[in-house]
Design a protein that fits this description.
nine-stranded mixed sheet, Rossmann fold, two-stranded antiparallel ribbon
Length: 223
Amino acid sequence: MTTRVGVLQFPGTNCELDAIHAFEVLGADCELLWHGSASLNNVDVVIVPGGFAHGDYLRTGAIAQFSPVMDAVRVFAAAGGPVIGICNGFQILCEAGLLPGALQKNAGMKFRCEMTELIVASARSVLTSDAEAGQRLCIPINHFEGNYTCDAATLASLQSEDRIVLRYAMNPNGSIDDIAGICNEGRNVVGLMPHPERACETLLGSTDGAVLLRGVLATGLRH
């Protein structure tokens, strides 16, 4: 059986085709899901890709959270469906209340586009289920507002509940506790700033992203 991956598309999204290509390379069937649709068309996995949803007007992800498709995503997530938000997608999931905290401008107010080394902090999520805790992965970042922040109580919960799934080996943006990715309490919703879809083929310089995306596909089949 083939995992069906739905990739959301908002006005301003620009990484949807990258995500589709990466998942198809790994053997999935993919479908674009327009933000104005109220249906997810019975997909097994939902990807909220990077870009500038609605131009990032007002605040990154702030407008996208109100799109009709996000109601379907909330229902899907509540039922245990795998939802992955990448870069702008992470920002949208935070704005939509599916993940805690927020993403603010990078330390030094600089746009960062570079390969980064990540440390798998927890293998207990839909994204990291095919990885091992402590494993190091080389995956690129491409963002200006990737500095993850949250209050002290939220950070304590993320730490004690093993919900920090990825950390930067060398923090490029000022994120609290070197956080590169987190998950929800159900471990089926994950947000991360790095782009695993851009690290799935040798031609791109790294195949480490496939480690993460394979875990998502396997979880989608079991859901």
